[in-house]
Amino acid sequence: MRQWLAIALGTTLVAVLWPISAMAERLEGKLDDNEREWYILRQDNESSATFTDVGDGDFLIDIVGFADPDGRRSRDSLSISMALKDGELLHYDVLNLIGTSAMPPVYTSEGADVRLTLETFAVEGGVARVVGSVKGALALQEALGEAPNLEEGIDIAVEFDITASRIEY
Predict the structure, then answer these.
(1) What is the pLDDT of residues 147-159, one digit of tens each?
(2) What is the rounded CA–CA span in Å between residue 69 and residue 58?
(3) What is the Cα–Cα distance from 23 to 46, expressed in whole angstroms?
(4) Can you give the residue range of the structural domain that contains 108?
(5) What is the pLDDT of residues 111-122, one digit of tens each?
(6) Are 27 and 162 a contacting pair, CB within 8 Å?
């Protein structure tokens, strides 16, 4: 639950603090049998798709796509976070923010039947190409602290091919 909360807060901060919209790659596919697309926002050296090299072949990747190319006007977003160890997918979370708040209700991969396939992760300098797909069903979490409900979930079939920017601390 902490991870989706961090994702939700990060998504909100990106949407609120983004000075000017900049369209780049998009995540595309179906959500609840509706064709959808989400935009990766970029401004100067900042992006809503990032990766961090944590050392020893381990990477953290965060992709936040916004339904509106100007993320400030909408919180409707799709967030995909993943952890890699030695090039292998170790863990992932998928979150679809709905409504006008970063708090539930949300659709989440927690307690759901979602498969993330990572086809490519290739780092070149300060960027990484990230290619993959998310398929399955996201569970609805109606309130903070409540268990997600897969029976009230939605189907997801999304593909992505994006360029993530390196974050260095």
Answers:
(1) 999 999 999 999 9
(2) 31
(3) 12
(4) 2-166
(5) 999 999 999 999
(6) yes
